[in-house]
Design brief:
heterodimer, A: alpha+beta, Alpha-Beta Plaits, four-stranded antiparallel sheet, two-stranded antiparallel sheet, 3 helices, elongated, B: alpha+beta, 2 domains, ten-stranded mixed sheet
Chain lengths: 109, 457
């Protein structure tokens, strides 16, 4: 982390959804000009690292350039999901903000 | 609307996006729909993955129950107005017992001197096929524990809804109708779209998907204090989709209500609970939103373009509701100097006690105020946050356990309560709860094995 790092929440908005033990988080740049930067820095590996403590089986990224966004499907990240998790947020609805709390190298300009 | 006069528009409002939604917002929605020209419909989405299993248990206790608990809180304020203005109502709030819901509705309407054509959409409930005749239920997952099944429902599509509307239904009550299919049924009725008209059905499904969570597209579950401000959050308006016979799709909301419809709110809802954006599987169509584009037409008016459709999947998704698990939670709070350290002491005590007495359980610990929502079962996230020495003086130790052994969970929760006398100084506010935790298991079944039908009540 350097002084040049930025908080993702200042550049994108996101919503989480669940199906069983699979979490999806859709992420959209507030401004179109930041989409390319997002696509460059927010890959599957970065998300897998951010959710490392949830031990996801698989992370898949779907890019949606027309919407300045991407959809992450994170399998096995919900501690069993709403069916068998003992977590406070069994749906994982709050996990969009786990992602938004990430820091990335600042975009140019 | 500045558009060709040859294009007809249908207007669909969604009055509820889940069983716990606000019942009052639909009143203004119906007033707004009543002022519009063209076909108008209102739907209420009242089911989630596990609610059907819960409804089935209520039906087992009382055959006159088993519909969504708050169904009538949603229907009562608007049903007379909808009948007056010719706005059909569609809901999946019949849950495990659409017929009982229809019968109660008919009785209530009668006391108001009203009459209505009420259609039930049936055929989603395959529970009868499970009664001991293994040969009939070969589609069940091999590892399904039969004795624990309390419900078995298949997500069914729009066909029976369209048929009921075509035959004059004022109110359509179903069970496990797929959420967007309620809108698809309405739009197929309004525009005469065929069951294999994939392109039009995709637009209809997108409309239903965007509406099905109610105010989640009008500023609800969207607001952020600084970056995404939303006006009048306390009075969010219900969403309305305007769908043209040319398959144009515009999302707006009840005029004069709180909230907003913007490209941002539409984007978030468009991908909500979607995996592959090019292949969102529904009973009616395979929806492709991967190339979708949005256009702001005016305040609280967003158009969605470039929706595509592919043939519906050959299989339907079913959900089994299963018993057998219990979920217990308990908490104790610490505040003031060294609150975090005292809570950590309490956590260590519990780890020791539970480890010795109930080693078979998998307790989940949170330290609310330091790490809770993002936590994991093995405590990695909590450890990480504690190493950052958070400056917090008000924390709550939470214990959560899911297991088959109710008594063992109860004993574990008792261990937390015992911290009152045996734990660190100044702990307070112990609360505990323990209840059955219904779970679901999904399966796929060939489409032709399921026969939805309309039953007039």
């Amino acid at each position: 982390m350097t002084n040049q790092d930025v908080l993702l929440a200042d550049f994108v908005h996101a919503r989480a959804g669940d199906k069983g033990d699979t979490l999806n988080v859709a992420v959209f740049a507030f401004e179109s000009r930041h989409y390319a930067w997002l696509e460059q820095h927010l890959g599957e590996a970065a998300i897998a690292a951010r959710f490392e403590h949830r031990h996801p089986r698989k992370v898949t990224r779907y890019c949606l350039p027309h919407l300045d966004g991407m959809n992450f499907v994170i399998e096995g990240a919900l501690e069993g999901g709403v069916n068998q998790s003992a977590t406070l947020d069994r749906h994982g609805k709050s996990l969009s903000y786990l992602l938004l709390g990430m820091r990335l190298p600042a975009p140019d300009g | 609307m500045s558009s060709s006069p040859s294009i007809r528009y249908a207007h669909i409002g969604c009055g509820a996006g889940f069983a716990g939604d606000r019942p009052d917002a639909a009143v203004a929605l119906v007033e707004a729909l009543a002022e519009r020209d063209g076909a108008r419909y209102l739907f209420f989405e009242l089911l989630a993955e596990r609610t059907l299993a819960e409804a089935q248990l209520r039906k087992l206790e009382d055959p006159a129950l088993g519909y969504a608990t708050h169904l009538f809180a949603f229907l009562e304020p608007i049903v007379a107005s909808c009948l007056t203005h010719g706005i059909p109502i569609i809901t999946n709030g019949g849950a495990a017992n659409p017929v009982a819901a229809a019968q109660r509705l008919r009785r209530q309407l009668k006391t108001q001197g009203l009459d209505a054509k009420i259609a039930c959409v049936m055929g989603d409930d395959l529970g009868d096929a499970l009664d001991g005749q293994t040969a009939r239920a070969d589609w069940l997952p091999a590892d399904c524990p039969r004795e624990e099944v309390v419900s078995c429902n298949v997500y069914i599509g729009a066909e029976a809804v369209t048929q009921a509307l075509r035959d004059g239904a004022d109110i359509v009550i179903g069970g496990r109708l797929a959420d967007p299919s309620m809108a698809v049924g309405a739009l197929r009725h309004a525009h005469g779209w065929a069951a294999d008209d994939w392109q039009h059905l995709a637009v209809a499904t997108a409309a239903g998907h965007l509406l099905e969570c109610g105010t989640q597209i009008t500023g609800g579950y969207f607001a952020d204090a600084r970056r995404k401000t939303v006006a009048d959050l306390a009075n969010l308006g219900c969403p309305i989709a305007e769908v043209g016979s040319d398959a144009s799709l515009v999302i707006t909301k009840t005029p004069g209500s709180g909230g907003c419809v913007t490209e941002q709110t539409v984007k978030e809802q468009l991908l909500y609970e979607v995996h592959d954006p090019a292949a969102y599987l529904t009973p009616d169509v395979t929806l492709d939103v991967s190339r979708a584009k949005l256009e702001t037409l005016g305040p609280d008016r967003v158009a969605i373009h470039d929706i595509h459709g592919h043939p519906a999947p050959a299989t339907l998704k079913g959900n089994l509701g299963l018993r057998g698990l219990w979920f217990g939670e308990a908490g104790i709070s610490y505040a003031g100097p060294d609150a975090v350290e005292r809570a950590q002491l309490a956590l260590e005590i519990l780890r020791q006690r539970l480890g010795a007495r109930l080693p078979q359980l998998r307790p989940h610990f949170d330290l609310i105020g330091v790490a809770s929502l993002f936590n994991d079962g093995s405590g990695e996230w909590l450890e990480k946050r504690l190493r950052e020495a958070p400056a917090v003086e008000d924390v709550r130790l939470r214990l959560g356990i899911v297991d088959r052994d109710r008594d063992a969970i109860d004993t574990a929760l008792q261990e937390l309560e015992a911290l009152y006398l045996n734990g660190p100084a100044g702990g307070g506010g112990v609360r505990r709860q323990l209840g059955e935790s219904l779970r679901t298991q999904s399966f796929l079944i060939a489409r032709e094995r399921v026969t939805p039908f309309v039953s007039w009540q």
